[in-house]
Specification:
291 residues, alpha/beta, Rossmann fold, seven-stranded parallel β-sheet, 8 helices, binds nicotinamide-adenine-dinucleotide
Length: 291
């Protein structure tokens, strides 16, 4: 049976874990070739092995790289072209929790790290993905991972929420800019998805908290995001651009207040920097509200 992405070439950042990895596997099953970019070397290698074990060894490649470094993003696009001849789909998905804690305790370095990964990384992915697609001259699909945290004030840490809001509007602005080139730019805004990032080392506790705020009776899985990504990557969405597709089991519809309000909110009790599943250590410290 024909796959929905037969002959397409995709690059996926943050493809070594969670929803990026689930999407890489699904894209392969749909007939695409996939290059994964990720900071986490061992998870990247294990994703390549998983793809190889499933019979896709000649259709997968991995490059260790940081999405906030322009040369690394250029190298990922170049790898897609070198290995598979072109680039049709760019999924800018890498992410971390970033700065948390009261705004008065957030350092400039933590704020900048958050925006470097979540916004500069998406900007660079769009920039270099689009450059390649324009060279090819026959369009393409860019997909960015936003979040319901970027569509409300109560579903994530402050800097993270601001950064994800920027992703949603970067999506709109670039969609308008690039429509004449038949390059579509859309975002996916996940709710609570069962991944290592959501778990933050406390899987049961975090899943219970998130489920409590999610109307659907189970949490989302990486495969739910992969399904949305296949739609946005394929011709089925050929007239869809500038859109942010919410995939959250009804959490946003129910107006999320995931982690509590004020200084008692979960992300306000301590301050620091969550470096996600990059393999780099996170920092946590007591709050002093910068008195
Ligand atoms: N899990 C959720 O509930 C949820 C909800 C909304 C949005 N998101 C977003 O979904 C995306 C994927 O997250 P996930 O839940 O699959 O998490 P995950 O931690 O399982 O995967 C994220 C991947 O991104 C990689 N990464 C982080 N910083 C990087 C960098 N600078 N350069 C290259 N790679 C980097 C990590 O190493 C990791 O492999 C992120 O953008 C995240 O913010 C997640």
């Amino acid at each position: 049976m024909a796959g929905r992405l037969d002959g397409k070439v995709a690059a996926i950042t943050g493809g070594a874990s969670g929803m990026g990895r689930a999407t890489a596997m699904r894209f392969l099953e749909e007939g695409a070739s996939v290059v994964i970019g990720d900071l986490n070397m061992s998870n990247g290698e294990s994703a390549v092995k998983e793809a190889g074990d499933a019979g896709f060894g000649d259709k997968i490649a991995f490059a260790r790289g940081d999405v906030s470094e322009e040369t690394d993003v250029e190298a990922l696009v170049a790898l897609a072209v070198e290995r598979f001849g072109r680039l049709d789909i760019m999924f800018n998905n890498a992410g971390v929790g970033g700065a948390f804690g009261p705004i008065t305790d957030t350092t400039v370095e933590e704020w900048d790290y958050t925006f470097d990964v979540l916004v500069r990384g998406v900007f660079l992915g769009i920039k270099h993905g689009v450059r390649q697609m324009k060279r090819q001259g026959d369009g393409g699909s860019i997909i960015n991972t936003a979040s319901i945290a970027g569509l409300s004030g109560g579903a994530g840490p402050t800097a993270y929420s601001a950064a994800k809001a920027a992703v949603a509007n970067l999506t709109r602005a670039t969609a308008a800019e690039l429509a004449q080139d038949r390059i579509r730019i859309n975002s996916i805004a996940p709710g609570a998805i069962r991944t290592p990032l959501l778990h933050s080392g406390r899987a049961a506790e975090m899943e219970a908290l998130a489920q409590d705020k999610t109307p659907w009776p189970v949490l989302g899985e990486g495969s739910d995001i992969a399904g949305a990504a296949v739609f946005l990557a394929s011709g089925d969405s050929q007239f869809v651009t500038g859109h942010t597709l919410v995939v959250d089991g009804g959490a946003l519809a129910a107006a999320p207040n995931f982690w509590g309000f004020g200084q008692d909110a979960m992300f306000k009790k301590k301050a620091g920097l969550n470096r996600g599943t990059t393999g780099d250590k996170s920092d946590v410290r007591d709050v002093n509200n910068s008195k």
